[in-house]
Structures are given as C-alpha cells and as structure tokens.
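=== RUN LOG ===
request id: a7f3
mode: sequence -> structure
chains: 1
length: 468
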Amino acid sequence: MSFSPPSRRALGLGLLSLGACAHLPATPASGFSDPLLADLHRRAFQFFWDITDHRTGLTPDRWPTRTFSSVAAIGFAFNAYIIGAESGYIRREQAAERTANTLNFLYNLPQGDAVSGTAGYKGYFYHFLRFEDGTRYKTCELSSVDTSLLLMGALCAGQYFDRDTPVERDIRRQSTALYERVDWTFMMRPSGRQTMGWHPEDGFIKAEWRGYNEGMMVYLLAMASPTHPINPNAYQVWCSTYEESFGPNHGEPHLGFHALFGHQYNHVWIDYRGIADAYMRGKGLDYFENSRRATLAQRNYAVQNPMGFKDYGPDIWGFTACDGPADVKLTLDGVERQFRSYSARGPGDQHPFDDGTIAPTAALGSIMFTPVESLSAAKAMRARYGADIYGTYGFYDSFNPTFVTDYPSREGHQTKSAGWVSNDYIGIDQGPILCSLENLRSGLLWRLMKGCAPIQRGLKLAGFEAVA
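=== RESULT ===
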C-alpha cells in the first residue's frame, strides 16, 4: 500500500465528526474500579481516534487549535488504536486499517537534506509535519526523541497486529522498515552522546542527551538497530551523566527530572519492574521505583508549596511540559511572579521551574506508578473545578489558579474557579494518560513490548538484569 500526498480537502475529512463527541456512546465493561478512570480512558482514546486524519494518520499536535502534526503524538496514536480495539471502542479491523494507512503514508514521505519539501533525513523525522503534505513544518528540528516516540508506537503496533491477513502483515513489514531505515550513527557526537536534533540550515543542535530523562528510549533503539547501530558504550557514557541528578529532590532519593514526562514516556512501553542496569543496581533501585519516587516527590512539593501558589496540596498537584498563561512577569497579591506560556515545569535540582500551572497529565500519566495518589488527584480536580477543566476529551491540558488577572494571556481563558485554563488538548499529554491507565488496568503495552526483539536486545546491550 502506498499513498500520494492528499489534498487539503481530504485532510479535513477526518475532522468532520468532532461535534458528535460531547456525548460518548455506551462503552463495554471497563475493568476500572472507578467510573472517572473509565471515562478518562474512553475520552483520551477518542481524542486520537477523532482528530487524526484516517487517510494519512497525521495526528494534530493539539486540538481545537490547529497548528501542525506531531510525530510523537502519532506514536501515542498507534497505542491508542491498539487500546481502542482491545477495549471494544472500535473493531480490530478499523484499528488495523488506520495503523496501516499511517505507516504507509509516513514511509512514503520524501526524505533528504533539503530545507523544505521533506519529512525527514537519514530515516529520522522532523518534530512537526505540515497537514497539507506531511513535510517539515517551518524550520523545526530533525528530532531524535520524537522519532523514537513514533517508532516505539510503530513497533508496538507490529507486535499487536500478529494475524495472517494482508493488512496486518503490512503493518508488521512497515513498522520494521521504518525502524530499520534510521541511521542512528548520524546523531552521534564527538562527546560519545546522541544529539537531540539537527537542522539542514546549520547542522546539529548543541543540546545532547545527558542526565536521566526520556532519552533512554533513544539509546535502546539505537543500540539494537540491525542496520545502523551505535556502539553500546554510548549507553554507559550517557549513564555517566546521571549522578548530578540523583538526590532527594523533595522525596526519597532518586534520579530526578523536574518534569514528569521525563519519567513517564519510557514506561509507556517498557516494564522496568524488577530489572535494572548497572547504575540502578548500584542504587538498589529499578526505574519503576525511581519514577514512583519522582511522582510522590512532586506531590510532596505541592504539599510544601514553597512559593505559595494557590490551591496546591495533597490532591492538587502535577507538573510537566504543558501550556501556561503567558510569558510575562507580574505582581499578584503583592508577590512578583514569572509566568510562562508553553514550558517544561517541575521542582528539582536540575532546571526547576514553577509558575502555579498544574497539568493533569502529570498526575494521571503517572497513575501506573501511584494509583492511589493519582486517582485522588483526578477526583479532587474534577470535583473542585468541574467543567472548567474537563471537557470532550477529558481534562484540558493545564490550568493556573494563581493567574487571576486582567493581563491578556497569550492563550487560554479565565474561569472563576480555576483561574487561567488552557483551551487545548495536547497529544503528547493525552498519550501518557491513556497509556498509563491501560498499563494500570491490564499491562497490555508492557506485555506486547516484552515480545519486541529490538527492545529486548536494547535492554540486554544496556546491561539490564533481573533484580530482587
């Protein structure tokens, strides 16, 4: 199967049914003990199913604001189709058709080093793609981690769609082809680390993967490649940058990363319970326990509330990369505050930032680590703020009770109970909510990836072993 670039009219066809989603149809037995979790699970799935174009698989970065497609969001969308099929929200055949359409569209997009007119280079994809033809959006970077998020979802689809039918065979073939096309050696730098990206205009960006974060999946995929692998020593070089991030970080000692997405993304696909690399074995931990501690540390920080932001507490917490009110410094109630629009947020010793903005995806994307605390947060936020922060696809991306001002924020709106509230849902924040809920409920994604040869090879090359 292959596709020529669709017309603008064709790209719009997948969005026509959005207005019908406010009242979701009846769902099968959910398997969740709490009805709010069942509702969130269905609504988060519906986000990916409704707003992704069926013919191309280009998932919007955000909705209802329409900007560009995010390749990382496409990776989460692959998971959503699997979850939807297993949950009875859609038929397996529907999920397979959408998945095959996406893989074929992506694989057939042009690659090359031109500044425009291509979707990627050396098998990598640009961070954002144009809806019109799937090519690079403006001057965004060729992204190592966003490509990795896309590939993790594609490989997971290859594991799930295992039947001997033409469409499912095609899914397995194309997911493998997308992965094996990437030349992982291209992003290696003289430091022995992977760079985060590259621009055709001026080459590699300065930022490299160091310290614990979502970059682990980049190294696992790169080492395991059967076509263009990097030297496994690169993983040890990366781990050598960990120690600067290890400490209490507002909780029990753990490898810290200020924004919770850095702890969540790897665990969407890989079950780290009971396995550890040499670094973690030396600390007497595994990465699952590390992320549990990181999540509880954020909750501790909200309870302590050292900067005195409104509404923080044991059930109102959660900090990650998300929308924010505005890039402005204001004095509110006699306190000077620095606010940001879209930014990574969270406490910790490395790159901390807090402006009172709470992202529900932070608590809910960690529900696989902290089921009791995350459920309490979801229920408390829903009860306190209601429809101000909860809509068609579940919780809106973020809100800020402290930002109650006449200052014209760049995006979002003011509400009486929740202060500033983002108008949008964001794909890379919806994805962790859905996937963490599913891993809590069934472990589905973890089980699938335990059969994924590249992931298991990557873990072995990184030195992962079973621990007590």
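=== NOTES ===
The chain has a mean pLDDT of 92.
The longest strand covers residues 328-332.
=== END ===
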